[in-house]
Design a protein that fits this description.
This protein has 431 residues and is an all-alpha fold. The protein is 67% helix and 1% strand. The chain is built from 19 helices and two strands. The protein has helices at residues 16-30, 39-55, 62-83, 89-99, 102-113, 118-143, 154-157, 174-180, 182-192, 196-211, 216-237, 243-262, 264-273, 281-287, 291-304, 319-322, 343-372, 378-389, 402-430, and strands spanning 2-4, 10-12. A two-stranded antiparallel ribbon has the order 1-2. A hairpin with a 5-residue loop joins β1 and β2. α8 (174-180) crosses α10. The longest helix is centred in the C-terminal third of the chain and has 30 residues, at 343-372.
Amino acid sequence: MWVGSSDNHIVPQLRIEGYLYVGIIMLAFCGLATQKLVHYPFGFMAVAGVFLFTFRRLSQPHAVKFLLPFLFTLVWLPMCLATINAVAMKHSLSTTLEYLHFLPAAYFIIYACSRPGVCFWLEKWFLWLTIFIIFDALFQFFSGYNLIGYPHLGDHKAAGDEVLTGFFYPKERLALILSVLFPLVFHYIKGARLKIFPYVILLPSYFFVILMTFKRSAWIMLAAGVAYLLIFFVLKRGVLKSLVSIRVMFILFFTVSAVVLSSSILSDRLSKNLGFFSGDLEQVDVASNYRISLWKTGYMMFKDRPLLGIGPRGFRHVYEEYSEADNFWIQDGRRGQTHPHSNIVEVFVETGVVGFLGYLLLYGYFIFRFFSEEFFTSSLAWSLTVLIVWCPLNTHLAFYGSYWSSFAWMLVAISLASSRLQAGDYRQNKS
């Protein structure tokens, strides 16, 4: 059933089962606030997905019968092959088997989004919750605590400034999640034209919160998202017609400039980042928070097992064995890192060349899909979230880790579902 909204757009009305589907998916998204809570709704969706796949069928099954299994296999099959001779067989096997539940969970999401109105309202709830997270973080910045009493991490980081975490306290994942969801916010402000709230309040607040988390990985992800948008609009509409993107870039530049000038700790961090351009490997290592040390060690692992890698999540188990004696991460009682803090390095190290080819095909598909469309729709916004969450430049959470993978496959499923619905609407309108 469809009802008219106050702004003359057609707004789908949910049935009872639609409310259930939206609620379960949003519960999974809210579960990202903790390390383990996200696994419970994902586990439920996986079980429900098996049931739905067995006893029900989609009206547009292309995304399920071919595309979703194909994309999933590009990641999972290299994991299986790498597990055969993994350096930490038990850990790799458990990771590979656990990863398998993302497939039926994604099927559940696609099935749910095929129900009337679910995809529309899911996008709205994602947007509203994102906006709520932003202003909750702002409340934390100005008061010292968020709406449920979580403090910022100024004292914890010994930085002398407010490090925002919001609902993700004490984990520093606020900016990572917000950076990935930027396309949804952009899609909203793009349709809002010149209204005050999106351009004067929402967008500067969005950029400000991401900056004040001091997460450089999130800054890179946000920059990647903005770059994709600029390239898309320039290619499709030309420079002069890409005014929305230009406005966004102006607001981004203004916000960054204002925050840098007012925050000494942010200025210091940006000054530290100048070491990237020094040409001195040691300074680059310090500026990157000693990631060069991680990547050098990862390269030694890759050289030893280039084809299939050392096995999923095996990096931590052999770090000391492959690292040099003066490696930062094994000094002063440290025992290495759990992953190399780079999507590309992690894929090469843990699943080898085979895994990288799978990743390349997976990422290439979403790049092709993104730039093959003529207009920036909600479907393309979801596709862009996938491009950001799996961006090759990401230096954040583990590519094969359950936390980030849960988020990634949720976005993949919604993206595939929204794409099929959009194609169906287009064919219907054309006929």
